[in-house]
């Protein structure tokens, strides 16, 4: 076990480099754009406006999930972080291969950067979610209370789980070129099997246990409970998030440690 956790320890020791490279990636993403970092706010704002328009004028959502645009936006915003971080992790060693081969940087740094940069995008978009909640509070469609303080904890646990998965994905993708394509299909399927578009209570009772076995289910139940329904996150969701985060980090460190020595030459 100590050998496995050494992967996470090496990444933690180089956290300053992780932050510097994540910042570089963010700057590179917006370099040359007129609006720069403002796109991190504008993109989710446009997405929210589309949802609000469609579900007010075209579709009629469930009566117990209103405003549905806010419910959907909170889930899709967090899922965007999950999917983009994992897809970036699948490419990170091929993108940074020259840097990895020419320096003594620990390879654990690069999946951590992929996760950290995408988490920064999510954090930069949170003011849009906060603004939507504030508007909903003004018109009485939502009633935010102290339960929303659970939301940051949920996001930290989600980021830790994604880091564990990113370690698996990044190390495997160096050795198997079709991992990214397979991952994209798995993420699409998982999106619909995760309570993002709907509350888990709407799933048939006989299938609900299967939904809870989905590693992402407790996280998105917690997202909606804390940032939409403003209720205490159920104990089963907290337990699920903690267990899946631990398992993802342990599995990620184990796989990465097994393949670590061959990453630089394969990248």
Please sum up the structure shown:
By secondary structure, the chain is an all-alpha fold. It is 77% helix and 0% strand.
Sheet-strand content, in percent, reads under 5%
> Which of globular, elongated, flat, extended, rod-shaped describes the shape?
globular
Distance between the termini: 27 Å
- State the secondary-structure class: mainly alpha
Count the beta strands.
0
The arrangement of helices and strands along the chain is HHHHHHHHHHH
Q: Helical amount among residues, as a percent range?
A: over 70%
The number of helices is 11
User: How confident overall, as mean pLDDT?
Assistant: 85
- Mind describing the biggest β-sheet? none
Which value, in Å, is the CA radius of gyration? 19 Å
Can you walk me through this structure?
The protein has 267 residues and is an all-alpha fold. It has one domain. The radius of gyration is 19 Å and the shape is globular. Helix 3 runs antiparallel to helix 4, helix 4 packs antiparallel against helix 6 and helix 10 crosses helix 11. The mean pLDDT is 85. The chain is built from eleven helices and no strands. The longest helix has 32 residues.
